[in-house]
Structures are given as C-alpha cells and as structure tokens.
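Sat 14:20. Reprocessing the chain from the morning session after the first attempt stalled halfway. Input below, unchanged.
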Amino acid sequence: MSGEVMEDNSLSLTLLSPLLLLLCSLPLWLLLRPRPSPPRGCRRLGLAEGESNLHDEFDPKYSQGVPRTQREGGQPSWRVKALFTYPLKSCGGIELSQSDVVPTGLKFDRQFVLAENGPEGWNTRTLRNAGFQRMALIHPEIWIPCPSAPDYDPSLPEVKSQGVMLISYPRIALAGPAGLFMRIAMSTGVLSTRRTFRVPLHPPEDSSSGMNYPLTPVKIWKDKPLAHDYGIHLPATLHKYLGFEPATSPLTLFRSSTTHTRQIYRNAPRAEEIGFQPTTAFADAYPIHLLNMSSHHDVARRCAYAIPNLSISRFRANIIIQGPEAFAEDHWKRLDIAGVEIHAACRTVRCRLPNVDPDTGLRHSVEPDKTLKGYRRIDDGDRTNACLGMQLVPALPEFVIRVGDEVGVLETGAHRYIKMLAPGRRLRGCEGVCGGPMEGV
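Finished this time. Tokens:
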C-alpha cells in the first residue's frame, strides 16, 4: 500500500513540476520582456500626456454666452476651445493645439476604420453596432517624421510611410494561475495594462517592405469606396478583445485611399460655389464636426440625474468653441475662423452613440439620447432624431486651424437636413450619389 502511495506522489510531482516551473519563470519573463520602442525618426502628434484644453469643461462659466466684442486675457471671447482628430473611426481621439485642414477635414481624421465581413462584403463597424462599444477603449497615436530627431533617416520605413499609427487596447489577462501573475504584474506596473501594435500611416510607394495592401470595397452607409486592406497587421489579441476568434475572425482594418475619397453633396456647398466638391474619408458625411460649449452644458445639465458629469468628448467633435450662447449655432450658415470662410452645411443629427462612455466603454441604457430627443428634435428634415452641433465644409481646401483662433458669424439662415438616399438615387442638382447621415463617430 505504501508503495502505491509513493508511486502516486511521484506521479503528482511529475505532473506538477512543469506547472511550478512555468509559474516561477513567468514573473521573470514579464520582467525581461522588451518594451515597445517609439517609432524611429518620428515625433508624437498632439498634446503632452495629461494635458487638455478641456480640463475645465465643467466650469459653470461655459453655460452662458458672452458678447463677441469682449476680450479675455487678450484673447477673443468667441474662440476655438479645443481641437480633436479621430484617426481610427469610433476609437479614441487625439487632442491637438493646431491642425492642418485638408479636403477631407482635419488631417488624419477618420482615415482608418475597422470592418466586419458579411454577406454583402466588408462593412464598417462603429460604437453604434451592438457589441462594439469596446472600440471606445482602443486608442490610436499618430507619429510623424521629424527631421530634427536624432535617429531620423529618410530610408527608415517609418519615414517612407510618412509616419506610423500606434494602436493600443486593454490587455486581457489569461485564465488560471498564469492570469493571476499577469494581473499582479499589471497592477504593479511590471506589465503594461495595454497591448500595442503599429501600422504605416500610408501604404509605402515601393515594394521593399514586402507588405501588400490591396484596394478593396468597404461599405460605409450607402457608399462602397475602395480602401487599403491593412488586416495583415491586426494581432490575434485585438480580435479576441473585440470578441472574435482569431482563426476565423471576419474582422479587418482599412485605410482610406487618397484617390478614392467620397464626394459629398446633400447639404454641402457645390463645386461651382467654392471651387471644389467637398470630400470625406470615413467620416459619416461631412468633413468637420463643430460643438459649442454652452450648448453642451445645457444638455449635460438636463442629463445630470443619470450622468453627473457628461463630458463633451462623448460627442466626438473636431472643433469645440466657446463664447456663443447655447444653440446659437443652429442658425449659422457661414463662419469665419481665423480668417477662413467655412460653410455650416447642416445640423448634426445625433444617434445613440454618445450613450457610450469613452473612458469606460460602457453604454448607458438611455442617456443622453433620451434627453436630446426630448427637446432637440428641431430640424424639419428629420423630426425623428435630435440635433446637437454643426457639420462644416471649409471654402478653402487647405489651411491651418489653432486653439484660440477667433470665431465669427458671416451669415445666418434656415437649415433643413437632407437624409441619405438609396444607392443610385440623386438629388436635383446633385452630381453624385449622396452619402449617409452624419453622427460624429
């Protein structure tokens, strides 16, 4: 009998030894694992970590409008408060102090999108789609070539692709004992709480990289533009984070094509008026989305019973302004920002997307959608949905916009939202197929 016990103990030790070795070596592996290095020859775009021009967004002073003639510390009272670009649609934004504006909007804005393959081919996915609220916690960084960087070299792949985008997302701990060590390592800072991968900002013009980014149709609303399939870069852990099995995942990443942008019509000004037909990449329908601080404060006050601090970041605007009274922008037709004429094409028709908290990725069951629909269904073109903010089309294809730039109103008038049309249908005087609704994602 004792021999059998000894044999059983020996067998147990044989089985446990590899597990004990794994558990003992895992912390050492975590310590010795190399950390991702920043892209060579590049600098990160945007404000320094921890800085934000919205640090005081809940200050009551933004609840009231002020006269345009006032000056605050030498600055105009009506001015650009904050700027954001959203390189990867429906994911985290990058706050800027200034931005180049290009024909598709703020530079880098909505140039990338995640898409799911289905019966009709590749279809874009956003925070609106069920199960995709986790996209809110995916954060892109833009790194652009910097000739003054000590390691800058024109032959670097990062420079040849005109920069790179780093994409990070929450690390999910493994199951079992190994997962316990991972959670301990993450809580103590030994292991990063986020995983990161990188993609080229532009497909390299030469074939030396060995990467192929085929032009593939991807559906966004009623349009199917050709875009570069970047799926080769998606790590298996990102598929799992979004709820897909890596081996059979129908998920990919697209980068918009500079030669296959979407011309927009509907409420947008025409080429004969401004000299070019407005275009967009993966924004819903118009190049730039604007929000007014006072208007947002009015909405946030009404939602306070459910969400005490409703951040303006939920509405994913490119330009946030301060100074005008609440909802004054509803009737703007043409603006002047830093001397550039900008058309207010139409009001921004809202969906339930702002119900997702960008800091947690959690979706509120009703707010702020319920409150908005309770008093902001104001546009005769769509009485079903609420409006907040304006969709902009600059009359100049390229310029620079900065935080602090003065905002003025050149013309006011009536707005009537034009809904999207079925594929192939055209509005009177519309030279192309009109795009989908704009909801600022």
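The chain has one domain: 62-412.
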